[in-house]
Amino acid sequence: MEYREEDYLMISGIQHFEFCRRQWALIHIEQQWADNYLTVSGELIHEKAHDKDFTEKRGNTITTRAMPVFSRTLGINGECDVVEFIRDDKNGINIFGREGKYKIIPVEYKNGKLKHADLLQLTAQAICLEEMLCCEIPYGFMYYAKVRHREKIELSEELREQVMKDLSEMRQYYNNKYTPKVKKSKNCNACSLKDICLANLGSSLSAKKYINDILSEEQ
Q: Mean pLDDT across the stretch 189-194?
């Protein structure tokens, strides 16, 4: 099965989904958004990595930033912060316009510390690259700006299966336009949407409809 482009889900949504199902639905179904210091900090970290015009060759490595990726079979798309093409004539693949063969390494930039959701996002990016370039990507890297260190991540079958599971659940919510309810937790304090979420209302109304109703009453 292949998805239509207009039905693609965003790869970045996997992070939101792992943090909170309701947060993901508010952003990706109801189109709600608000910033806090965590989201702004993350955006600043990604500014350099998302320079679409940047391509650099150093030695045997070609580095490109903000590379668009997609998977027709999974119905997802997004951007890789950094993709490294490392010359490997024995195990690599051909790249159009480049001499020799290269192995493909995705690198995801984050601000804080290692989280499981980060690994799933990196894995989803690798799956897209594998489909697009007809290759196998056994590992990638997570780069954490706070400590200026990157960590090698083995893209295991467990991670790949979790990506598939999450996307299946996300697709069900998305197709049904359903925003799930959640119990209030410590994650709520770090959520930029806590004033929009209204998790304590216990209402069957969506947050979007609730806010629209309030605005209508004020007019």
A: 77
pLDDT winner (highest mean) among 31-35, 152-156, 180-184, 199-203? 152-156
- Under 8 Å CB-to-CB from 188, ≥6 apart: which residues? 194, 197, 199
Residue 101 CA neighbour count, 13 Å, CB half = 10
Q: Quick one: CA torsion of 135, 138, 139, 140, rounded to 10 degrees?
A: 20
pTM above 0.85, yes or no: no
DSSP, residue by residue, 134-202: T----EEEEEETTTTEEEEEE--HHHHHHHHHHHHHHHHHHHHT--------GGGGG-TTHHHH-GGG-
CA distances from 15 to 36, 55, 119, 143, 161 (A): 16, 27, 9, 16, 16
Instruction: Fill in the DSSP letter of residue 203.
Output: -
* pLDDT tens, residue by residue, 148-180: 788 999 999 999 999 999 999 999 999 999 999
Q: For the chain, what is the largest distance between any 2 Cα atoms, rounded to a whole number of angstroms?
A: 69
- What is d(CA 102, CA 90) in angstroms, rounded to the nearest whole number? 9
Q: Per residue in 67-114, pLDDT tens?
A: 999 999 999 999 999 999 999 999 999 998 889 999 999 999 988 788
Name residue, tokens 């806010």. Answer: 211
Domains by residue range for the chain, with CATH = 5-218 (3.90.320)
| Distance from C-alpha of 8 to C-alpha of 215, rounded to nearest angstrom | 32
Q: Residue length, the chain?
A: 219
